[in-house]
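== Sequence, structure tokens ==
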Amino acid sequence: MARRALKLASWTSMALAASGFYLYSNKYLDLNDFGAVRVGRAVATTAVISYDYLTSLRSVPYGSEEYLQLRSKIHDLFMSFDDTPLGAASLAQVHKAVLHDGRTVAVKVQHPKVQAQSSKDILLMEALVLAVKQLFPEFEFMWLVDEAKKNLPLELDFLNEGRNAEKVAQMLKHFDFLKVPQIYWELSTKRVLLMEFVDGGQVNDRDYMERNKIDVNEISRHLGKMYSEMIFVNGFVHCDPHPGNVLVRKCPGTGKVEIVLLDHGLYQVLTEEFRLDYCHLWQSLIWTDMKSVRKYSQRLGAGDLYPLFTCMLTARSWDSVNRGIGQTPVTATEDSEIRDNAANYLPQISRLLSLVPRQMLLIFKTNDLLRGIEAALGTRASATSFLNMSRCCIKALAAHKKKNTHSFFRRAQISFSEAFNLWQINLHELVLRVKGLRLASWVLALLCWLLPAPH
């Protein structure tokens, strides 16, 4: 019994950490590994990939005569098809192929038994959650089951993923650094998605960036702009930005740096009320308006746990939040303190996660994954990232105000205020850059003075 309790306790701590708390190290926790969407899938089959444009193929044993006959039909669709997957996950594998017209494509094919197994997985998850509830009444985990029931069917529908990809590409088309692979609908089904093949290095691969002369700070800025626009302005958020889904490259034609966004199965659509409250909250955090921080945290469901809520949201200590997250850099000591104290707050975290709107759960996950990328790149919590967030908040709040007024004078007043606030941010950013350049020149001069001249 004690061993069983210990196992359930470990499931408890993993679920909590993956759903919004942040442990930034090489052992970074990811909801993809054991969270709401994937917990049940841990028991799902990892059987060999189904090349299934033909539904019957999912029941054909690998290597059998019937399998080989059906496998040969793949050549009717492709000039070549690489059997070795480029990548594999719990849902699907991705293969490189060439169409008869010469186009190189990526073929994402769902594992054969995932659809049939998914309902059983959710039932298993529900049973585990109820068992945890019996042993540890203070922990609330039913939201895990609710999120799985909502998100898993969407992720299993690859046509939905294709629609999401086209929507985000259109929504962010003004970002010339963003590349979303084109979907080829004529050869796509719910279980097979054909898309443009785009190569690149993972967004956390510093060695790849150094070899290809890609500036990590530029990538970090682009990533911040892209996600700030999704969250604050559009309310349509790609919620799976782990490094395997975010590639970087230099565009073969232009040589410009691009971010390639993959795997569009999991998106969060924010309600307008939630999005605007979230905008106000981040504005308050950036400008250290603690009265408003409390107000908008509570509007987002945090109640009296709003200090913990803001710490989880920013991945900063309460002391740093009070002093200003844009003013005080992240230190190793602060990160260590957060990790060491995390276990002490598990009951409060559990309660908080049961209180906040369901939309917040995937936002927590997205924030954590993005900070993991920033930590890997060494650009975490830079002043520029906060300024980009603030720009998007200003634009979003101004657009909302203009939409809700019919007065020409009032609209002009809002536009002027928006332009002035954006100008202030641009000026502040310019000052920071000048200070940075001046500091860099001072350091260089000091090094030249200290180091002996070469003979």
In short: The longest helix spans residues 408-450. The two ends are 75 Å apart (CA to CA).
